[in-house]
C-alpha cells in the first residue's frame, strides 16, 4: 500500500508528467523565438561588421588596391597591413611577406569573380568578393612558409590558383619596411 501509485491513478500521473514536459518545451521554444527577435532587432540597429565596398572596375586605377600599394606595410601603431588582390587565376602579390609576433591586418578584394583566401596552418580563411573589401586580423608566432590556395571554385584555372606566405623575423621585416615601403616576396 505504501509502494507505487494506486491503480487507476496512472493516467493522472502520466498526464501531469506530460504537462510538465510540454511546459518545459514551450518555454525553450519561446526563449529561442525571443532570442531571434532580439538579435534581429539588435543587429539591424547595430550591424556586427562594418561593410566596406569598392568598385571592381576602377580598383586598379585608383584607391588602396592599385598595384603600387599592394603587399605589406608597417603602420605607425606597430601593426602591419597587407593588401591582396585576387583575379583569375592569381593573387597579387603572389608571395606575402609578413613578420612574426605582430598584429597583421589582411585587406583583400577580387577584381572579377569570387575567390577564396586561406593560409595553411593558420586561422585565415575568408572569401574575396568583387565589390567588397574583406578584412581579417591575425598574428603569426613562428617564422616559416605557408601555402595560400584559392579555395573557392572560380573557373577553369582554379586548381592552379595559389600563392605563398613567408613569415620572417619581426626585426628583419621592420628593417625592410622602413620608410613605408610595400613589401612582398614575389619574384619580380
Ligand atoms: Cu580563385 Cu579559385
TrEMBL record:
Record carries keyword Repressor: no
Protein localization: Periplasm
TM spans (from-to): 21-41
Cited Pfam families: COX2
Transmembrane listed as a keyword: yes
Domain Cytochrome oxidase subunit II copper A binding as annotated: residue spans: 77-179
Keywords for the protein's UniProt record, in alphabetical order: Copper, Membrane, Metal-binding, Transmembrane, Transmembrane helix
Protein name: Cytochrome C oxidase subunit II
Origin species: Massilia suwonensis
Amino acid at each position: 500500500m505504501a509502494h507505487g501509485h494506486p491503480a487507476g491513478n496512472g493516467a493522472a500521473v502520466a498526464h501531469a508528467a506530460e504537462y510538465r514536459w510540454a511546459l518545459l518545451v514551450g518555454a525553450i521554444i519561446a526563449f529561442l523565438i525571443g532570442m531571434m527577435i532580439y538579435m534581429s532587432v539588435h543587429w539591424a540597429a547595430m550591424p556586427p561588421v562594418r561593410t566596406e565596398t569598392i568598385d571592381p572596375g576602377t580598383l586598379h586605377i585608383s584607391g588602396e588596391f592599385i598595384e603600387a600599394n599592394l603587399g605589406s606595410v608597417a603602420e605607425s601603431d606597430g601593426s602591419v597591413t597587407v593588401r591582396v588582390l585576387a583575379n583569375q587565376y592569381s593573387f597579387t602579390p603572389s608571395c606575402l611577406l609578413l613578420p612574426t609576433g605582430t598584429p597583421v591586418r589582411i585587406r583583400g578584394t577580387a577584381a572579377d569573380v569570387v575567390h577564396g583566401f586561406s593560409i595553411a596552418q593558420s586561422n585565415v580563411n575568408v572569401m574575396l568578393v568583387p565589390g567588397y573589401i574583406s578584412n581579417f586580423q591575425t598574428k603569426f608566432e613562428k617564422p616559416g612558409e605557408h601555402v595560400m590556395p584559392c579555395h573557392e571554385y572560380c573557373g577553369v584555372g582554379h586548381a592552379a590558383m595559389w600563392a605563398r606566405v613567408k613569415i620572417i623575423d619581426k626585426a628583419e621585416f621592420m628593417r625592410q619596411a622602413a620608410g613605408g615601403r610595400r613589401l612582398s616576396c614575389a619574384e619580380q
